[in-house]
Amino acid sequence: MEFDPVLTWDRLAESWDAAMGTEGNDYFTVIELPALERMVQPKPGDRALDLATGNGLVAHWLAQKGASVLATDGSPAMIVHAQARQAMRFKGIEVESLVAYGVLDVTNPLHFEELISSDRGGPFDIITMNMAIMDVSTLEHLANALPRLLKNGGGRFVATLLHPLFTCGVTRSVEYSDNPKSGREEAVYTLKMSKYLHVPPSKGVATQSQPHSQLYFHRPIHELFSPFFRAGLILDALEEPNFDEAYTKANDLKLGSLRQFTQFPKLLAFRLKRA
Ligand SMILES: C[S@@+](CC[C@H](N)C(=O)[O-])C[C@H]1O[C@@H](n2cnc3c(N)ncnc32)[C@H](O)[C@@H]1O
Question: What is the pLDDT of residues 245-267, one digit of tens each?
Answer without folding.
Answer: 999 999 999 888 999 999 999 99
